[in-house]
Every structure is written in structure tokens, then in C-alpha cells.
Specification:
By secondary structure, the chain is of the alpha+beta class. The protein contains five helices and three strands; from the N terminus they run H-E-E-H-H-H-H-E.
Length: 110
């Protein structure tokens, strides 16, 4: 397991602390049965989310409420924006749902 980072004041600061996503094609998120319920492609505009989700999977093993809360801190200022504009940041919305009692998800790096 990867050591948990101490989130900084901004998402940009936090991204610099995360492991490289070089070679990652996508992140698959799985439910309790192992079925893929969402994927995040390693494409421009999504690479920050790929980095955060890869890190959360490495540091926590599963996206449960603790991992999701930490992920929200890593997303920094984007978390407040996601709360104010539901649907604008679906990868943050997913973490908010888990913190709110949603089912944990598995993280598969491809």
C-alpha cells in the first residue's frame, strides 16, 4: 500500500504528490460483484481524476467512505465546485455519493 499524502491547499499542489499515471489506459470502478460500473479514460481533461483514483486504490485498496473523504480533500477546490454544481464533476460526485453512504467500489488500473 502507498502512504497517504497530506492534501495541500490546491488540486494542482496535490497532483504533484501523486504517483505517475504513465502507462495507465483507464481506471475501472467495480461494484461488490466485480462488475464494472464506471470507467475513467486516461485522456486530457480526465488525467487528474485518473491520478486521484489510481492513488486512492493504491493507498486504501477500496473506495470506501474513508478513501472517498480523502479523495475529496485531494481534489481540493474542485470539491466545493462539485457540491455547488452537481453533475459538473462526475468523478467527484461519485466520491460524494460514497461519503454519503453509497456502496464502496473497487479500483482496477488498466
Amino acid at each position: 500500500m502507498l502512504a497517504k499524502i497530506q492534501p495541500g491547499p490546491t488540486f494542482r499542489d496535490n497532483l504533484q504528490k501523486l504517483p505517475s499515471i504513465e502507462g495507465v489506459q483507464r481506471i475501472d470502478l467495480t461494484d461488490g460483484t466485480g462488475a464494472v460500473v464506471a470507467s475513467i479514460e486516461n485522456l486530457p481533461g480526465k488525467q487528474g481524476s485518473v491520478a486521484v483514483y489510481q492513488y486512492l486504490g493504491q493507498a486504501f485498496g477500496v473506495l470506501d467512505a474513508d478513501a472517498a473523504a480523502h479523495g475529496l480533500a485531494v481534489f481540493g477546490e474542485h470539491t466545493a465546485d462539485a457540491r455547488n454544481r452537481p453533475g459538473a464533476h462526475p468523478n467527484i460526485d461519485r466520491l460524494l455519493e460514497i461519503v454519503g453512504g453509497g456502496a464502496p467500489l473497487g479500483v482496477v488500473v488498466r
